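#lab-general

N.A. 3:47 PM
ok so I finally got the sequence cleaned up, no stray characters, all 379 residues accounted for. can someone with queue access submit it? mine expired

B.Y. 3:52 PM
send it over

N.A. 3:53 PM
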Amino acid sequence: MTTSSRGSKVPAVLVLEDGRTFRGRAYGAVGTTFGEAVFSTGMTGYQETLTDPSYHRQVVVMTAPHVGNTGVNDEDPESRRIWVAGYVVRDPARIPSNWRSRRSLDEELAEQGVVGISGIDTRALTRHLRERGAMRVGIFSGDSLPDEGAMLTEVRRAPEMKGADLSAEVATKETYVVPAIGEKRFTVAAIDLGIKGMTPHRMAERGIEVHVLPATATAEDVFAVNPDGVFFSNGPGDPSTADHPVSVMREVLSRKTPLFGICFGNQILGRALGFGTYKLKYGHRGINQPVQDRTTGKVEVTAHNHGFAVDAPLEGATDTPYGRVEVSHVCLNDNVVEGLQLLDQPAFSVQYHPEAAAGPHDAAYLFDRFVTLMEGQRA
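B.Y. 4:20 PM
back already:
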């Protein structure tokens, strides 16, 4: 049960599973929520962050102190709703100011039932998560709160992100088509594991008609649209549970159809090729992560949202049932695998979000690389 915190000074408490507690004020809806505590380093783009399906069942801590300054508009959402389980900010804007703003962020959170907390030291919370790792968390707000022992017990009963199979919960239930902008050049089948709206738009800008399929789509469903290429999207949850998408991708690889995956799709490709995946200590989230494209030597500033990574050798090529593969991109902060590229057939993936919603446009070339693969296959 949630109610609105608008215009009030309703008390709120954030409780981490290791017992650390932060007290502040309710922000958005008043009530109780649970999830995995993670932090995002972006200074802007909060509307796209909130509506990114990859944040399903996560409580997002914003490291930038001032949030909500530009309000909420009707153009920037990346999906049909807010997906975060909870929201943590230090100093929310009292009055939003932007010509596109239609309502305040506080109002939007309350309207969609998202429980948040404000007025806490988010820098201290972020440092705690960096040292201890992402963990379960609860936000409790209202005039009558349980004692800390009872709240901690509830937090520790919440499900963990490790082992969570979530992509089907956020994906479309029915296939839909995003038409090409201008002349149609190619058809792509996109598996929705938690896709953001800007992703098919970026492909449409390049003359691609995108058929967005549910996460449960079979290989027969994929090839029924006669695609020139197949795309696997970002999404939430533990990739070790994604056996169905892995089996579909292996069929795509066996047919040597041009393939592109991002984020969760990168992890699916890793598994399809025989690599393992593992959970990062606190993940990469934000719009300022440095990545090197090893195929060109170029360093990009990129948008990330992932808590898992592929366990693949950083040096040299590895033999797989589908040919040789090498790590094409690497994070310069911690050497995490940020991309895979097959050397003997047209398939590649990256761990980050090249659609740049929100984020820098350094990685837009990856959509052009996908087009080049499809051109080569057609030729």
